[in-house]
Write a structure and sequence with these properties.
The structure is a single chain. The chain has one domain. It is mainly alpha-helical. Helix 4 packs antiparallel against helix 9, helix 5 crosses helix 7 and helix 7 packs across helix 9. The chain is globular.
């Protein structure tokens, strides 16, 4: 009983938890509106006051459970799983290889990597870049895209590059695309969690904090689904990607100064 009480007792003061709760509420809201963005927003904002990998550890349970919820909400899980298996295996391999190669990255380098990832994602989102990947090209591209996504995930905590542009290029319908992103993000979260546990960043005493962060994330997702029906999604997406650009510039500037 004492173990459980200690496990689910939040660390930090009430002000810190108000900030963390607001960040996860905002990140969940973004995900509720456009189907993605919870890890990206949470990592970007949490990393203003902690290291990127500490932010990734806090994000573990909210990201994993909300993405499992997203991937099981559709009716096409089995065919999608079979189709995306090469990419998912590549994500796992890339995450573990990157974790071994770059486990000693300094916060400055990790912040620079996060800044570059946010800038690239913001620019691509604002430019509305779209590609088409044929079935023939998919067979050879899928493991490469997965491996690259795993490398980016392990160094920055961000799961979206290049997996999201690749999934968008497969011409999936809206529901299948949201489900495919949930599947990709869930696997990325699990692989990153194994890395973080292996290097000691993800520990039992963080589990309570991560579980508590799930509550505002779920509330934000529900709020986002309400907002999605009441506002222009194109305007929301533009604001979202412009915010990522600003945060990317901030992290790169900070890395250059340190």
């Amino acid at each position: 009983m004492e173990f459980l009480i200690a496990l689910f007792t939040p660390h930090g003061n009430s002000t810190q938890w108000l900030v963390v709760g607001f960040i996860f509420l905002l990140a969940g809201m973004v995900k509720g509106v456009i189907g993605l963005g919870l890890p990206t927003v949470a990592i970007a904002l949490l990393s203003l006051s902690m290291t990127t990998m500490q932010a990734a550890a806090l994000l573990f349970l909210p990201s994993l459970l909300t993405n499992i919820w997203q991937l099981v909400s559709g009716a096409s899980l089995r065919p999608l799983l079979l189709r995306l298996t090469p990419m998912l295996l590549g994500i796992c391999l890339g995450t573990f290889v990157s974790g071994l190669l770059f486990s000693k990255l300094t916060p400055a380098w990790s912040g620079a990597g996060l800044g570059v990832a946010l800038l690239l994602y913001g620019v691509m989102g604002l430019a509305s870049v779209h590609w088409h990947v044929s079935i023939q090209a998919e067979r050879s591209l899928a493991p490469v895209i997965g491996f690259a996504t795993g490398m980016v995930t392990a160094t920055t905590g961000v799961f979206v590059l290049p997996s999201v542009p690749y999934l968008q290029a497969l011409d999936l319908d809206k529901d299948k695309l949201v489900q495919a992103m949930g599947l990709s993000f869930a696997v990325s979260t699990l692989a990153l969690g194994i890395n973080l546990y292996g290097n000691g960043t993800l520990q039992w005493n963080i589990a309570g904090d991560s579980m508590l962060a799930l509550l505002p994330a779920l509330a934000g997702m529900q709020l986002g689904q309400v907002i999605r029906d009441k506002m222009q999604q194109a305007l929301f997406r533009r604001c979202f990607f412009m915010g990522l650009l600003a945060l990317g510039v901030h992290y790169l500037w900070g890395a250059m100064k340190s």
